[in-house]
């Protein structure tokens, strides 16, 4: 999986198509990520000592990594990436622009 926590991605399919957001958490074993503001679900919370009110909260759910694409903020375009070797280290590079992923 080539998408990591902190990357900016664009949703390419589904109800949130076209949405751009940051990856808050990545789950490589499941090939899923959590993107801020995408795939919002309502969760019913039981009252606890920390939250005596309980109630219904909205939070982001996981989305499959095949439904998102890395987004180059400078060029304002979503792109695939490739791996290149620079100074003996592997780096991720956008295919469309050739810029290195930050």
From TrEMBL:
Organism lineage string: Bacteria, Bacillati, Bacillota, Erysipelotrichia, Erysipelotrichales
Encoding gene per record: rplX
Pfam families: KOW (PF00467), ribosomal_L24 (PF17136)
Role of this protein: One of the proteins that surrounds the polypeptide exit tunnel on the outside of the subunit. One of two assembly initiator proteins, it binds directly to the 5'-end of the 23S rRNA, where it nucleates assembly of the 50S subunit.
Family according to the record: Belongs to the universal ribosomal protein uL24 family.
GO cellular component, one term: ribonucleoprotein complex
HAMAP family registered for this protein in UniProt: Ribosomal_uL24_B
One GO biological process term: translation
Keyword Ribonucleoprotein among UniProt keywords: yes
Domain (KOW) ranges: 2-29
InterPro entries: KOW, Rib_uL2_dom2, Ribosomal_uL24, Ribosomal_uL24_C, Ribosomal_uL24_CS, Ribosomal_uL24_KOW, Translation_prot_SH3-like_sf
SUPFAM superfamilies named in the record: Translation proteins SH3-like domain
Key word Manganese present: no
Oligomer status and interactors: Part of the 50S ribosomal subunit.
Name of the protein in question: Large ribosomal subunit protein uL24
Keywords from the named record: Ribonucleoprotein, Ribosomal protein, RNA-binding, rRNA-binding
GO MF term list: rRNA binding; structural constituent of ribosome
